[in-house]
Amino acid sequence: MGMAKVVKCKQVLDLVKFRTGCWVKAFSPACPYSLLDFHVNLFSITTCGSTMEKNDHNQQWRLPDVGSLKFNVDGAARGKLGSTGMGGLLRNNCGVVVAIFSIPLGVLDSNVVEVMAIKETCRMVNEKLDWSSPGIIVESDSLNAVSWV
What is the maximal distance between C-alpha atoms in the chain? Predict the structure, then answer.
């Protein structure tokens, strides 16, 4: 018989904040923020030194239409060819997170990782959802990846 663990949403959010802080501090040691800053002010931190510039496209995330789901995906690389990972969030029309994924990938090209994030999203939709459902949106910030797919 498997074991189950009940975890509250606040515990998950606290863990996400802590791990985000650890990840940023590991990749950008010059980051002036402490782990406590990440925990208390995560959503107001926009830059950490010269390697963590905010990518400002003057766009705000928008809710999907009623009855629709939106997958926001991203790939990340330390340099053009470096340690990489990908992840994504699936949200409903109220903005509630329905699913989340995060996968380390090893050393790859940053553009390849962006495409792999979209591919993983499509795989998850094929396995878990029905493409004929109204309004499944996959959104990426990578113009290269979107144009290649």
Answer: 51
Whether residue 1 lies inside any domain: the answer is no
What is the mean pLDDT of the segment spanning 127-141?
73
Rg (CA), the chain: 17
Q: Which residues of 37-47 are buried (b: 16+ CB within 10 A; e: fewer)?
A: ebeeebeebee
Residue 30: pLDDT over 80: no
User: Is residue 34's pLDDT more than 60?
Assistant: yes
Q: Does the structure show a pLDDT above 50 at 52?
A: no
**C-alpha to C-alpha distances, 115 to 61, 72, 93, 141, 143, nearest whole angstrom:** 20, 13, 25, 11, 10
Whether residue 3 lies inside any domain: the answer is no
Residues 6+ apart with CB under 8 A from 114: 74, 75, 86, 140, 142, 144, 145
For residues 72 and 116, membership in a common domain is answered with yes
Prediction pTM value? 0.55
